[in-house]
Amino acid sequence: MRDIHLNETTAYYRCSDPELSLDQYSQRLCTKEGVEKAQQIQRDVYPAVSRHICVRARHFYETIKIVLAMHDVDAVISLGSGFSLLTYYLSEDFPRVQFIDSDVATVLKARKDRIRELQKYFGPQILHVEQKIFDVSKLAKAKGEIKNFFPYKKPLFVMEGMSYYLTSKELQWLFDSFHQYNQFFCMYDYWPSTARRSLIFNKMISLIENQEAGEAQITVVKPEDFQKMEGAVHLVEDKGLDEIEKKWARQPYELEDPNETVPSRFRVISKNT
Questions:
Q1: What is the 3-state secondary structure (H, E, C) of 83-149?
Q2: pTM to 2 decimal places
Q3: Which of 88, 96, 120, 259 lies 20 to 30 A from 77 at CA?
Q4: pLDDT higher than 80, residue 219
Q5: What confidence score (pLDDT) does residue 173 get?
């Protein structure tokens, strides 16, 4: 159930400020227990988490819109999509692009079951958003080929928060797999490596898993290590959460202790050979 509750909390936060995130429906995918966990995390661990997720959702949406408008991307593939409705919102603006939501089987099944009632809020093109089972951990261990799952000419891969949960080996396999394509884009976010930020994240995961706070573990990858993993690519942009918040938020989120926030960074890379 960890994956389900984790995705419920994120979906709940996305709707905490719909004018900022431009998402007013994700919260309807949550159970009562998921909402309670989300509220507990925000109250006891990380007060800024809802603002963080709203800003992230807005930045992914706006950035991908720019990439799609400027380049002939034929598919947008959300890896570890969870309960994100990003592809649904984007599909309304870009009906000629193929959109794919992918995740492990348990999450994808829950997503399909819960999302049926939401389809009425979107245009008919969202029916073309494909759902595909994709387990990064299993594929990395088996050294499977990502291109067999997503046979497109110029895809854009989206990882909203997924980099936090994979091991270094799994991440390396993933970035190596992207290079099977002659052309691709990838947008992802990451947390700069510090013990304090890792502790905050572990406490959040511990509450979701009903463990003692701090017991859960998250793989920490330094920014420079991500750059090595990417291989020979072009860096389109790398922006911090504080920069993005100034652009989209009506007013900054003020915390008594600045160390209590987690200044995420967001990267977009491309390859065109």
A1: CCCHHHHHHHHCCCCEEEEEECHHHHHHHHHHHHHHHHHCCHHHHHCEEEECCHHHHHHHCCCHHHH
A2: 0.91
A3: 120
A4: no
A5: 95
